[in-house]
Known about the structure:
Layout: E1 2-7, E2 17-22, E3 29-33, H1 40-47, E4 55-60, E5 63-64, H2 70-75, E6 77-80, H3 91-96, H4 106-115, H5 119-124, H6 144-156, E7 162-166, H7 174-182, H8 184-188, E8 192-196, H9 200-203, E9 208-213, E10 216-221, H10 223-229, H11 232-244
Parallel strand pairs: 3-8, 3-9, 6-7, 7-8
Antiparallel strand pairs: 1-2, 1-4, 4-5, 9-10
Helix pairs in contact: 4-6, 10-11
Amino acid sequence: MFEEVSFTYPGRNAPALDGVTLRIGAGECVALVGHNGAGKTTLIKLLLRLYDPTAGRIVLDGTDLRLFDPSELRRRVSVIFQDFVRYELTAGENIGLGDLEALGDENRLLQAAARAGAASLVAALPEGLDTALGRQFGGRELSEGEWQKLALARSLVRDADLLVLDEPTAALDVETEYDLYCRFREITAGRTTVLISHRLSTVRMADRIVFLSGGRVQEEGTHDELLAAEGSYARLFQLQASQHLGTAG
């Protein structure tokens, strides 16, 4: 629960978040959308305690987030950021680093790969999970989309209470993205999920969509509710839809 949360980055005058109040229920999937600089990623950084609010508070299970030990808190969270890391290690290690206890468990690694849509990728590698990746040490190089699949698998291998997906399909092809869309409920079952994406076709799967603008919550509701409201979300969705249909401009 975000209670009147504001945050200003050091050295800046304008707040990145300005009086945000937002409730995220257990097991709920909430999507954060808005233009660049709206405050989406900042909100996630505060949730992970990379920073603390400059005003207001964030409450988890009735306790102020600042009272949690950061290491304990982060063990309860699994996250994939848009600028995910490509580890010059094996495919299995790239997945298992999401939970070190999974490194020696081939079944867990393969299950995470399958949930992330990376099963065929791993199967096609010359040594499967043991295939070294990256050019630095003479390993197999992957495409941007293939690296993102492994990063998504890394976020899914951990049995976390909260799953944070920051642009999880940005580098994926349309077919793979659609496959993830169809399996999204299966992937996030039993977890509270926060999804950030500029692709509004992706956020439709969320239970609730929060449209941020200028560090504030401007609109909130389901996809259908926000379309019916004919506000900023609806205009942005219609613009993206027209671009995909080749009718924009």
